[in-house]
Structure prediction request, 668 residues.
Amino acid sequence: MVRNHLKRLNICAFIITVIFSSIIFAQGGNLKLRVVFDKSVKPFYENVDLNISLMSTFSDVKENTARIVHVIGVSKESITRKVNDFVRDEKGDYVYFKGSYYRISDKRRYSYDEKQKKFVVDKNGRYVYLQEYAWARKQEDKYVISDFYALKSYEVQETKYFIFLVVTDIEISTFFIKSITPIVGKGSTIEKAIENAHRRFSTVVNEYSPDKLDIAVLFEKGFDPVLRTALLTQLQEDTRYNIYDRLYIDEVMEILRTSDLFGVEQIVLKFRPPKYLITFENLVQLDNQTAEDRYYFFENPVNGQYIRRTINGLDVPVRVEVGGYYRYDSTNKRYVFDIEKGSYVKYYKGPWEKDNYVFETRFYDYNLYKPTRLTTFYSFLMKVFDTQKGTLVSSKFFSKSIETILKEPVDRFGSEVVNFHTDGKVESYYSAARQVQEFLQTVFPLTAVISETFGEKAIVEGGKNIGAKPGYVFQSVSEGYTTGFLRLEKVLEKSSEGKIFYIVPGDDVEPHTLAFETKMYPNNIGLRFGMFMNKEAYGMKIGYIRSDIYGNYLWSLTFSLGIPYNANSQSDKTIVPMGLEFSKFLFGENFELVLGTSVKYISENSGETYISDYEIVAGVTLSSYVRNSVLSYGGACFYTSLTYTLPMSNFELSQNNINISLGFDLRF
Prediction:
């Protein structure tokens, strides 16, 4: 088939290819490299010789290795999008303020006159008068520092090229397949797509190791080649398998019938009989493009006319009275206009709404835009067979629908961002591949031996040779029981160093015990959350809780916020009790010694705020805490606190200072 492709090339192109190949072989010495093209792909693409470009880019072949670069697809996609640029122009109609641009009517410049204490016209001044700043609290706020800008609108066309490759490395002396690596490359030109494909290839390092599992992959006839590429790429990226696509090997050898790559007449590619067979079948794919109106909100703190409200799960714009701030007059039970201290805005209510004032500080403009959505649906069945026992090890049906917005606005002026259709499809395939990868990691967990421990460090007899990577978690097992968990930090060729982060109480992580990779392990967030009630208020507390390597809690630091029972009757002021507590666990995890402080934050309706009633708090807490399990942190419990409060303004001891709190506590 390669000869059939060559016949289509003109004589000049053939001579150039031969000369270029000769140069590469002369420079590379033992370099063995062949580029082959699928029957649907032509070696020339838009006046670019793909053969020459690929041979040059993928010429970093290791000694005693032959490489086949198989081109299974080449495509390109072009899109257009609207762009709005602002350029400095003294005659421009826009100024820059608070991260965006705003049209301005007053084209004069100003400076601030210290003597007159006001802004005056000055052609060399730094300030401009943004009269349109309707949400300014004071008139002086409308004078802002900015240059003038002009708006330039135009359309941009973008083109992206895609190339789909499978790179196979073969050991020449034994004809042993070292790796089969599918690659998707993309770029603004076909040459950049090839460069990016090689860059991607150099990051996916999964060479053969006798310590890895030998797995053959079988795709049903007609399986999407791009999805097939994505699935194999993710499996190669995992590096824990020696992966062989059996049908693909046969396809390559049907194409590659010449012997000059290997120097012999007849070759038989070798690989160990796979222990497992993975099949992909029953593929269903559907692509659908739809378009519907959608609100896009863009913040406009200068003169935004809308706020966002959620109605039936959708964000919709609600028009407000621009520039109108209100505050609530509790004496007269009504809202009054107060542009300096008001925190409420008035919106135009519907007939079904009772109140038309809301606390809001963010204002928006919106665009009603009809974006194009690409919905990609896929489903397929994966099975894992043990070839030695002839049994089905595992199977799973994968199904997912992924939505990609192809074009949508990004600012108030209608600038657009565009996603390529091909990118959307490829990303949906890689999403499917990641699901498969995560599932197979639970089917084929890595296994090693802990050879040495010192403190919280452990040496594991397994590294790159078994596909281990930094961040992988292993559980140590002794006599059938889990004793602890460690996370790999440094991975060498045949060994790894990990940090022990959890030990089962009563056990220990010891040398010469087995270690199995796991995705389920104790996770300590170190968060504490509770609800409480006492004689004065009810409220909540949140904070940090510290535990040891065995999961036993040591101490915590929490912040509390309360609401007085009589809060609604305090018409002239708002009182918020606040507290900070340090808690030390003693005699287990059900008894705590508490030491802290509390204050009251008071806000008068006149606008004055202050802190009062400083107090020192000391006491004990007794809880019903029971740990969720020996292999997990945290739990929920009820608790009772008995505390004594000592006011800083009055050190007089009194039984009224005794306080009992009841609450519910969550530990994570």
Summary: The chain has a mean pLDDT of 85. Residues 293 and 370 are 4 Å apart (CA to CA).
